[in-house]
Specification:
Layout: E1 6-7, H1 17-44, E2 57-59, E3 66-68, H2 69-85, E4 90-93, E5 106-114, H3 116-121, E6 127-134, E7 137-145, E8 150-155, E9 160-163, E10 169-171, E11 184-187, H4 193-206, E12 212-214, H5 219-228, E13 233-237, H6 241-253, E14 257-259, E15 272-276, H7 281-291
Parallel strand pairs: 4-5, 11-12, 11-13
Antiparallel strand pairs: 1-10, 2-3, 5-6, 6-7, 7-8, 8-9, 9-10, 13-15, 14-15
Helix pairs in contact: 1-2, 5-6
Bound molecules: D-MYO-inositol-1-phosphate and calcium ion.
Length: 300
């Protein structure tokens, strides 16, 4: 790595298992991201307008929780590629499930589009997220920002990187922030009304105590923002494992202090996910305890 913290893409990765899994995650996520990028104008038009609905969009957990035909296509593409590159591995995907409750051994955890509402509206902040977990612990992962064509990746113990559209690779580190009152926090909201009401009340407590809050609409990219210093911390209740499996590892490998749910918990349990720059992690923990953010926000 040069003094500017970047190196040429032609330099190969090492050969440990975690690194091999990361390289598979990167290849598969980049291919799915290219598919998602090419399909958006075909299905929804070139500008922000949602021009086609009908059979292209359906609802999931609530009427506001969308799944598009492209989410389904992206997940199928990822499943097909993993079946070729890693035959026999278990896969848990947001749209078609699989892997059941079993977290034993190696499984791939896939979000084919994280930020589907943004994808639908043409807000250019959505990602493909692919992680490899062993016994429920993320050991490798990739998050590809579809519109920016940027790839965040990590292998456990080997750091986190950002590869830009130009092909430059840079190592990721969290910001050296030390004061929560000067921290930029990212967050997100679930799709159910009861959870949203509780999340809104928490924001009312936290917003006056920090620099500001961002809600960009893609949990995996929120976690990568903490890794790259575009945010100082991120928190959200009630994520699915596909939302955090890759991004939490990328944040951890960039130096963040990360709290994730137990591997068997689901979105309905409403557990808290946090990634914080290390210099504010203790103070943020204390703030979250004070305002009741440690408690789960279950979906009722
Ligand atoms: C959602 C996004 C959003 C977060 C929600 C997630 P989806 O994922 O990550 O930012 O706030 O909790 O469900 O539905 O776009 O895959
Ligand atoms: Ca999704």
């Amino acid at each position: 790595m040069d003094a500017a913290g970047s190196r040429d893409t032609t330099q190969g990765f090492g050969d440990t298992e975690a690194q091999r899994l990361r390289d598979v995650a990167v290849a598969v996520a980049q291919e799915a991201a290219a598919h998602v990028r090419s399909r958006r104008p075909e299905v929804f038009g070139t500008v922000g307008k949602v021009v086609a609905h009908g059979s292209s969009v359906a609802s999931k957990s609530t009427p506001t929780d969308p799944v598009t035909v492209v989410d389904t296509e992206s997940e199928q593409l990822i499943r097909d590629r993993l079946a070729t590159l890693r035959p026999g591995d278990a896969i848990l995907g947001e749209e078609t499930g699989g892997a059941g409750d079993s977290v034993a051994g190696l499984r791939w955890v896939v979000d084919p589009i994280d930020g589907t509402v943004n994808f639908l509206y043409g807000v250019p902040t959505y990602a493909v997220s692919v992680a490899a977990q062993i016994d429920g612990v993320s050991v490798a992962g990739a998050v590809v920002d579809v519109a920016a064509q940027a790839t965040y990746a990590a292998a456990r113990g080997y750091g986190a990187t950002l590869t830009t559209v130009e092909g430059r690779i840079g190592g990721l580190r969290c910001n050296p922030v030390t004061d929560v009152s000067m921290a930029l926090l990212a967050t997100g909201f679930g799709y159910g009304t009861a959870r949203r009401k509780a999340q809104g009340a928490l924001i009312g407590e936290i917003l006056p105590r920090v620099r500001d809050i961002r809600r960009i609409g893609s949990a995996s990219l929120d976690l990568c923002m903490v890794a790259s210093g575009r945010a100082d911390a991120y928190f959200e209740h009630g994520l699915g494992p596909w939302d955090w499996a890759a991004g939490s590892l990328i944040a951890t490998e960039a130096g963040a202090r990360v709290r994730i749910p137990s591997p068997r918990s689901s979105s309905a349990d409403g557990d808290l996910v946090v990634a914080a720059a290390p210099g504010i992690a203790d103070e943020l923990d204390a703030l979250f305890t004070e305002v009741g953010a440690d408690d789960p926000i279950r979906e009722t």
